[in-house]
Amino acid sequence: MAYTTTMLAWGVLEFGEFMGSDLQHAYEAIRWATDYFLKATSVPGVVYAQVGDPYGDHKCWERPEDMDTPRTTYAVTENKPGSEVSAEIAAALAASSMVFYGFDRRYSKLLLRRASRIITKIAINKFRGSYKDGLGPVVCPFYCSGNGYQDELIWAAAWLHKATKATYYWNYVTRNIHSVDSVFAEFGWDAKHAGINILLSKFVLDSSLFRPNADKFVCSVMPESPTKSVTYSPGGLLFKPGGSNMQHATALSFLLIVYSRYLYGHGNISIVHCDNVAVNPSRLIQVAKGQVDYILGNNPSGMSYMVGYGNKFPRYIHHRGSSLPSIDQHPEHINCDEGRSYFASNQPNPNLLIGAIVGGPDMNDSYNDSRADFATL
Q: Catalytic residues (predicted)?
């Protein structure tokens, strides 16, 4: 949730001027999340990281209105550290503070103060350690941290530097950036490496600190690059190992577009060299656009992988609220076990999850529209 909020805020900061009437909806979505994070961090020395027992919740197929599983809360504390989740919340609050700065200065300052407190007094010092150790089986095997917590700490410090220009955060980034693995095409809820390099390259585009790694990210994903570390399906979809592949195609495409904006207007610096292949900013946009076009229907199946877009899109989404009848249609309570009949139904979901992007097709552009296949849905 915190990573999603950070990305939504980054999107507004980069592209808000093009969002038209949807910009207000973006503000509302961000504030819904940041209000929650303010509550989750309101007790000094405590960060509430999760509500609900994951085993009990995964066992039940219920509507949100009918949920009767225990709402157990789990917090990271000094004795149960959780640098990843604490730092990502700090990043979300710092990025969002810039979104609200122009029209709600008081709220913006509140978000920034809380972000600073979390990163300096909690994530780096008191709570330094992985939340998969601090919270154990509550976190794993659901959202294990495979990349450690140092990338989240640097990511949060980078956002706080962007929001405050304070040398403390910049110094933290530069002192610790070499402690994270050099995996240039990794970016998502668990790995921030490529995002860090792209975000900070704007500040030091003519420097040898982050620009080379940002360029290596480009070379790791461009189809024509001799050093690419991703693959492409016959239809042109970017692929990385693991389920829910669209998370990679969308996140990496976002970084390509952002970096292309940073590169424009810098003369020879704007060219990325992947060995003997030269890549200009317009090529980055072209590749990202190709991914978006694929997702929206320009693919061998002719299917849009965004629900509600076009005439052909997934109808059996692995989503409780979408697959169960609405309260209007079925006002009676549907308990934990009763929901399973709707999960197993061969009928399409009665409620369209409009705007949702599914996990996507396999490496051969084949897609299985099935609720049980959660890796694709």
A: 318
Q: Which of 25, 318, 330, 333 is catalytic?
A: 318
Inter-residue contact 174 to 209 (CB < 8 Å) = yes
- The C-alpha atoms of residue 121 and residue 130 are separated, in whole angstroms, by 16
Domain of 69, CATH number, reads 1.50.10.10
Q: Which two tokens stand for residue 64?
A: 């949100």
Report the C-alpha gap between 304 and 313 in whole angstroms: 5
Residues 6+ apart with CB under 8 A from 330: 324
* Cis ω before 348 (30° cut-off from 0): no
Contacts 24+ apart (CB under 8 A), 138-145: 138/50, 138/53, 138/54, 138/74, 139/50, 142/54, 142/58, 143/189, 143/190, 145/84, 145/190
Residues 268, 155 share a domain: no
Q: Which residues contact 323 (CB under 8 A, 6 or more apart)?
A: 61, 316, 317, 342, 343, 345, 349, 350, 351, 371
Distances (CA, A) of 32 to 35, 37, 39, 96, 187: 5, 9, 11, 11, 24
- Hey, what are 6's tokens? 């950070």
Q: For position 375, what pLDDT does the model report?
A: 64
Annotation says 273 is catalytic: no
In a domain, 343, yes or no: no
Q: Which of 305, 340, 364 marks a domain boundary?
A: 305
Residues of the chain with pLDDT under 70: 123, 126, 181, 204-208, 265-269, 375-377
Domain finish residue from 138, 155, 178: 178
143-196 per-position pLDDT tens digit: 887 788 999 999 999 999 999 999 999 999 999 988 876 778 889 999 999 999
> Which DSSP symbol is given to 227?
T
- Please give the residue range of the domain that contains residue 203: 181-305
Kindly state whether residue 334 falls inside one of the protein's structural domains. Answer: no
Task: Determine, yes or no, domain membership for 377.
Answer: no
Q: What is the pLDDT of residues 250-277, one digit of tens each?
A: 999 999 999 999 998 666 668 999 999 9
- Within 8 A by CB and 6+ apart from 63, the residues are 320, 321, 324, 327, 334, 339
**Helix-strand-coil split of the chain, %, nearest 5:** 50, 5, 45
User: Is the pTM value of this prediction over 0.85?
Assistant: yes
Same domain, 44 and 139: yes
